[in-house]
Amino acid sequence: MRATRRRLLTGGILLWWIGMLGWQLRREYFQPELASLAEAALSLAPGVNFYTIRMGDRVVGLATSRLDTVPEGFVLEDILSLELPALGQTGTAVVRTLVNLSPSLEMRDFSFSLDSEVGQYSASGSVEGDTLLQVELDAGGGQQTVTHRLSQPPIFAAVLPIRLAMGEGLEVGDRFRFPVFDPSALSTRTVEIQVTGHDTILVPDSAELDPGTGRWTPAHFDSIPSWRVVERYGGVQVESWIDEDGRILKASSPLGFSMERTEYELARQAQEDARGYGDSPIDDDVILSTAIQSEVELGEVESHDELRFVLSGVDLEGFQLEGGRQRLRGDTLIVRQEDWAAIQPDYDDLPYPRMDFLEELQPEPLIQSDDERIIQAAEEIAGWQIMGNNDPMRITRRLTMGVHGMLEKEITFSIPSAVQVLASGQGDCNEHTVLFVAMARALGLPARTAVGLVYVNDAFFYHAWPEVWLGQWVAVDPTFGQYPADAAHLRFVTGGLAQQVEILRLIGKLDIEVVPPLTAESEVG
């Protein structure tokens, strides 16, 4: 049972890691000063670069970056193919980004897609005038249009290193700050850039086939002058080495991902070798490598009404640790499981009758609660018309167990969409959560996504689950079939992708010490 629970954990942590692979996959925009860029960009040389992507010591992907000159400016196309080991499975994802740029490196239009086992997420956009960005999203429920007004003309973020190199020249110590728009999260954040070093990097510039072994080997290396560029946002840091044209030579993130420029034959050979790697060490597993080990065994966590955890290693400011079933006392987080029998909703029937939770009742691009397929499935699970009973407690219970029973438990690497999850009938905690939230909202039950950690098999894993309003925010977990969720669910943020990116601040830094339940004193007051 406990091993099964671990297999239900999120593969969607990849979404946060894709954000960390910003040098290759960025769906972001920033607005720097553009004076003299058009003239400087005339020196840019078109070409195709290939990269090997590693997690720890294991090759997990191959990337291609193509820059072309066209009469109207430039075209930048990035393609990334990932094969990620996770709990004995291999999750695959292909990410494509294409952006058309003006001579001064301003974005004219873009397209982005993420293909995985459960479907495709795509976004495309164009700039109208100088500051009106129209974005078309398709996450399986039909196209949706979102309009963004920006203070300055947007430039695609994958062009950031090129823009830095084409500016007034790179100097160690240079600092920049850019507002960044991310269409996948539909939000803006500030990115800080610093040039921190200068060195010469050896990069393979050709490969040859060894007739004796039948394997490709580097035939020649180039010595390329390069600058070390550090990007910081949300407490996360990505480091890249770039050449004089701003093209990436190598890069790394604190999450164990790295990439290096190489030749296609070498990158492809390394990827094929990795397929025969066998079982992955913990450091090369995208789920196990981020788990936080616990020195205290909690046994069957459902038996504990209250648990306490000492949090350290990170600044807790800005996280949603306080409220509802959670209390933060200094560095100690107290989580009390709700008593289902004692819950008294402040309304009798669905749909929810007041206007104070509009955000938690409305559809979103990935939570298509107004889609007829979602509405019909929700009504069938809830027994909406047959039972004639719209009690929110009954509906919550039926939705929790209904979603738990209808989805096959598979780790998936995707941007989950409720409509696609309903169609595929499979997924991990992200898919269970997005489908539950969409169905709950379709029936008029206020619901939101919570993200944090859950205790499984003597360790804490990153996890997602819903919260519903029943006179208070109550945590349920359709992935594990729990209503309410046990006290070993530690919520750090609530909301969509724009809010969930805050979890990046925890990965690799957070330490959790479990206060043994038998010695924890009861909280007074």
Characteristic terms for this protein:
41% strand; five-stranded antiparallel β-sheet; 2 domains; globular; alpha+beta; 525 residues; C8orf32 fold
Binned strand content: 35-45%
**Count of distinct structural domains:** 2
Tally of contiguous helical segments: 12
Cα end-to-end separation = 37 Å
Strand arrangement across the biggest beta sheet: 9-8-7-6-5-4-3-2-16-15-14-13-12-11-1-10
Number of strands: 27
Low-confidence stretches: 11-36, 519-525
* Helix content class: 10-25%
- Structural class determined from secondary elements: alpha+beta
Overall form: globular
Rg, please? 24 Å
Q: Mean pLDDT across all residues, rounded?
A: 82
Characterize the main sheet: 16 strands, antiparallel
Quick recap of the structure?
Helix content is 18%, strand content 41%. The protein has helices at residues 2-7, 13-20, 22-25, 37-41, 160-166, 264-275, 372-382, 384-387, 392-406, 418-424, 429-442, 497-500; strands at residues 29-30, 47-55, 58-70, 73-86, 89-101, 107-116, 119-128, 132-138, 143-149, 155-156, 175-182, 187-210, 215-233, 236-242, 248-252, 257-262, 292-293, 306-312, 326-329, 332-336, 408-409, 426-427, 447-456, 459-469, 473-475, 489-494, 511-515.
